[in-house]
UniProtKB/TrEMBL annotation, chains A, B:
It holds the Pfam family MRM3-like_sub_bind. Residues 99-235 form the tRNA/rRNA methyltransferase SpoU type domain. InterPro entries: Alpha/beta_knot_MTases, MRM3-like_sub_bind, Ribosomal_eL30-like_sf, rRNA_Methyltransferase, SpoU_MeTrfase, tRNA_m1G_MTases_N. Keywords: Methyltransferase, Transferase. It comes from the Bacteria. The lineage of its organism: Bacteria, Pseudomonadati, Bacteroidota, Flavobacteriia, Flavobacteriales. GO terms for molecular function: RNA binding; RNA methyltransferase activity. Residues 6-83 form the MRM3-like substrate binding domain. This is TrmH family RNA methyltransferase. One of its GO terms (biological process) is RNA processing. Belongs to the class IV-like SAM-binding methyltransferase superfamily. RNA methyltransferase TrmH family.
Length: 239, 239
């Protein structure tokens, strides 16, 4: 049995405000919980319908009933495993050769897919505007498929961040230069904009280069999905 | 007011079986409804809370109450516009230079994103295995952002389809040859596999070439999302 106050706390972590207040976030599903436990992140509490089913490096796992899990899960069909972890401190050091900057990404699935792409393409740092969806949102975490443990995601004021860098700053725009005709350097910053509005005006002014992914044939669809565009650009960076 | 039997029919179209039985599918949202009305697809019925708000080329729009719309919508928050359309007949002719083949894609968001990518990259034909999620599923349609009207999606037995083609057949595999080291021809077939299992064994046997998208740095994440992989491969085809 889990005490009521604890159920209330965990449920509250579905809201960004409460996650930040308590410095905690929730992960669901056997595979992802195990992956986070076996990373650098620190466990707060682990719950499972069947605690013996979880491979968690000797960490304590509390038994939880189906009913209790239903009360705290953000899933329609909770799948038996839930972990609460401490939100890691933002690392100050930028380690990557390339840095991905996100200017106002709103869709949790897009952000999760982009973090997973960064993991695949070895881009270790993602710098998000404060207007970008929170990376500890349950839907984001689900889409990262565990990659959140290997990519350093920061939130900051992009204008302040970009105005101090000496790296070339690539922005993606409908009217930019085709990425097929651009030779990308070994280090740089790549900026992806909001799903509807693209890169914001203030941030666009700080770009040193404007890139585009060319459409083929007749112009029909309005735009590429931002996660699809990120896939193509990170692939080009790493070629 | 909409008659009860009609509400019942439209609600039933949330199921694939009923869509096929009636040859009808449902689209929601002002922009997408307008896009489908203004395409080759044939209108069955259009509904709107405010019929004057829809730009539909002279087609008749029936007024519907909030309550009625809530009864037939597949959205948590219906947004005022719903269109029912006839499912177009499968076109026999393959028009494209490149054909995308999908072998068991399960996630509606992935299929929708892939159809949108085909529209962007001018790939006019998508051939799906019968195990692939139905392209007239509401979540697929939402993710296509209207591209369903410009891409010809067929469902068929892939082994039969692939065994008759004279085009080179590219499959995507974890252990394939890096796409960075492959010169892709002007015409061909590109096969993307299921999210968890990849290309099925029977279909893999019919591939003439095995491709992979190289990971950068340490091997960490297990795989690329299939829509991200499709984005990169279609970009490579069109370069």
């Amino acid at each position: 049995m889990v005490v009521k106050s604890e159920l209330k706390l965990i449920k509250s972590l579905q809201q960004k405000k409460c996650r930040n207040e308590h410095g905690l976030f929730v992960v669901e599903g056997k595979k992802t919980v195990e992956e986070v436990v076996n990373s650098d992140m620190k466990v707060y509490k682990l719950f499972a319908i069947d605690p013996s089913g979880l491979d968690v490096n000797g960490e304590q796992v509390s038994a939880i009933s189906n009913k209790e899990l239903g009360q705290i899960s953000s899933l329609k069909n909770p799948n038996g495993f839930l972990g609460v972890f401490h939100i890691p401190k933002q690392k100050e050091n930028i380690l990557s050769d390339w840095i991905l900057v996100l200017d106002g990404i709103q869709d949790p699935g897009n952000l999760g897919t982009i973090i997973r792409l960064c993991d695949w393409f070895g881009v270790k740092d993602v710098v998000c505007s404060n207007t970008t969806v929170d990376c500890y949102n349950a839907k984001v975490l689900q889409a990262t498929m565990g990659s959140i443990t290997r990519v350093n995601v920061q939130y900051t004021d992009l204008q302040a961040f970009l105005s101090t860098t000496k790296l070339p700053v690539y922005g993606t725009f409908m009217d930019g230069v085709s990425v097929n005709n651009s030779k990308l350097p070994e280090k740089g910053i790549m900026i992806m904009g909001n799903e509807g509005k693209g890169v914001s005006e203030a941030v666009a002014k700080l770009c040193t280069d404007r890139l585009a992914i060319p459409q083929f044939g007749d112009v029909t669809t309005e735009s590429l999905n931002v996660a699809s565009a990120t896939a193509i650009l990170l692939h080009e960076i790493r070629k």
